[in-house]
Amino acid sequence: MADGRRRALVLGGYGLIGAACLRRMTTAGWRVTGVGRDAAAARRVAPDADWAIRDLAAMGEAEWRALVAGADVVINASGALQDGGGDDLGAIHERAVVRLVRALEGSRTRLVQISAAGVAPDAPTAFFRTKARGDGAIRASGLDWVILRPTLVIGAGAFGGSALLRAAAALPGVAPQVLPEAMIQTVALDDVADAVLAAAEGAIPGGTVADLTEAEARSLPETVAAVRHWLGLPRALWAPPVPPVLLRGAAAVADGLGRLGWRSPLRSTAIRALADGVRGDPSAWEAAGGAPCRPLEQTLAAMPAGLQERWFARLYLLFPLAVATLSVFWIASGLIGLARTGAAAEVLTSRGWSDAAARVAVWIGGVADLALGLAILWRPLVRAAALGMAALAGGYLVAATLAAPDLWADPMGPLVKVIPGLVLALVVAALTESR
């Protein structure tokens, strides 16, 4: 390069692991380009970074060759948990990797693949099977490669499973015993980023396949208890068992919501992975010269929890509840208005409106309420729908004040009761970002 710095390409650069790798490589003096398909998410995660906005799953080999040209190392931190919500596991984990491998053929570029502990061609979930096939394409190539397979990643930021872990730990007074037989090993996000840097700089031999993990495992409830202690919350007073059928039901609902764009960590793939245990063997990594990964207690001690961590943990589960509440409220409001047009129109006709104008106003309002109540259930439209609810509620208040100011003094408080819904919509709009 013109400035003499080595160049790194980080695929999936705004994800939990990708963003950490991007930052670590940059501070180590590399010239780093992050790659991802969402320009807004990229700017939020690393506003000063160099970004190439690409849909990795849709790129052809020519685009891949142009993208990787001149890179000294390519770090593949892209991935998805489950099909749905715009994600295609076969395209992301397998076909994109095959095209990447072909684009790198004949080059001296090192490929660092971030996979997952437990991948296998005959694994019970598509996530692990597709990851294994992508890893297999790399291992069968003549490239200079290193494959790293982290267990459950814990960092200052939280996404997916690590976010759900915090939310479960923050339940007030309750510690549900979910999958008590499942054994979990973790790895610090900083340790993963350091491992990637070591692999990128050649400190790890080519051809290494290694799990990144702490040495010891603990049960899932013990892991949740450790996070609860880290958050500074008192011990739970009640630890009820969670029947497997309830967990399967939650996973089925989460899978259904995935079709609406919601990437819930409660989807069946995550539940199955937890049930099977998140385990790894650190021996291959340490034999390759890698530094031992710290245990969970040290990981948590290195990132003291503050008010923002407790807020996040509590709001993580309240957010979907708030979305559901708004959806039910606005759908019900719309249906009731449309079903009882005459009664609703009477509020206006009794104040001088013509019957036709009153009925048109009721129908427009009912259809708008129903549309917003349905729109907020689709993940890409959550923020727009929430802001639309706030704007429409504000419009109702202004219109009612002009047309029927006496309603403010109504003992049933029909206008006063609009205000909490308006505020809740603004809160939801403020919480919609997932990265």
TrEMBL record:
GO molecular-function terms, A-Z:
protein-containing complex binding
Could you confirm whether the keyword Transmembrane appears in this record? yes
The answer to whether keyword Repressor applies is no
Pfam families linked to this entry? DoxX_3, NAD_binding_10
NAD(P)-binding domain residues are: 12-154
List membrane-spanning regions: 315-336, 356-377, 384-403, 415-432
Keyword terms: Membrane, Transmembrane, Transmembrane helix
Instruction: Kindly give the PANTHER family that the UniProt entry links to this protein.
Output: NADH DEHYDROGENASE [UBIQUINONE] 1 ALPHA SUBCOMPLEX SUBUNIT 9, MITOCHONDRIAL, NADH-UBIQUINONE OXIDOREDUCTASE 39 KDA SUBUNIT-RELATED
Q: What is this protein called?
A: Putative nucleoside-diphosphate-sugar epimerase
Q: Which organism is it from?
A: Wenxinia marina DSM 24838
Q: What is the lineage of its organism?
A: Bacteria, Pseudomonadati, Pseudomonadota, Alphaproteobacteria, Rhodobacterales
